[in-house]
Amino acid sequence: MSNIVNITPENFQQVILQDSATKVVLVEFWAQGFEPSDALAPMLATIASKYSDNLVHARVDAQQQQEITQQFGVQGLPTVILVKDGQPLDGFAGPQTEEQIITLLEKHLPKPEDGLYQQAAELVTAGDYQQAYPLLKDAHELAPERADIKLLLADSQVELGQINPAKALLETIGLVDQDALYKSILGKIELAEQAAESPEIKALQAKLEQNPDSLEIKTELAVQLHQANQTEEALELIMSVLLKDLNFGEAKKFALDMINALPDGDPLKSKYRRKIYSLLY
């Protein structure tokens, strides 16, 4: 349902000043029995109802509320004025198509990706990259050109062990957007790659070269790689163990733990979930 309110002198301040601080107020000036007003009214109501999270649909009966009508400088009907923070933003007079009205509204209303980005930014601030990731992925799909979304997504990817996708995303960031966050992500990638070159991992890799069929070494190396945020390499290795012996040690448990630790929406999660389910069932 749309947020429809009829403006009167009694609620004028509430709607035009207070409500417009948090939402855009669409003020529709109309007159009963005036055909252009009657034609526009149902279309406006339908459109406004789709944007009710961010829009208040306010109506002014120009015959009954002449003072308010004059205050807005309305000279013809129907007239629509968009108000934000108590100030007129935009508007139109006379008949309009549905497309024209939607185009006008979307210039001034928050976009879906803005809400997703804001939610994700709050989660990242709280250190919850797991929950932030799917929101950022959706926001990136809606607005693939936005550098702020790409940077926060890349940051989340690094934190969740998706080093290669994060590096690929950073390559698309233009010079003008290579800010402090961009440099911070590069630093995190460097640390992650250094961790993957730790003495423990190098020693296990050397052992595996000497014993390429050792399921025990493969399992141990997979665990170490996962801890070093080398998630895809770890999953590939642990799956190679399960392909040889589904019940080897704790390999199955490690594989499921690694998969379940991935955030929803991560392509690796669905890829390796399918692989392990095909082995289990």
From TrEMBL:
Pfam families to which the protein is assigned, alphabetical: Thioredoxin, TPR_19, TPR_20
Coiled coil, from the record: none
Classification via InterPro entries: Thioredoxin-like_sf, Thioredoxin_domain, TPR-like_helical_dom_sf
Record domain Thioredoxin: where: 1-110
Superkingdom to which the source organism belongs: Bacteria
Entry-linked PROSITE patterns: THIOREDOXIN_2
CDD domains: ybbN
Protein name per the record: Tetratricopeptide repeat protein
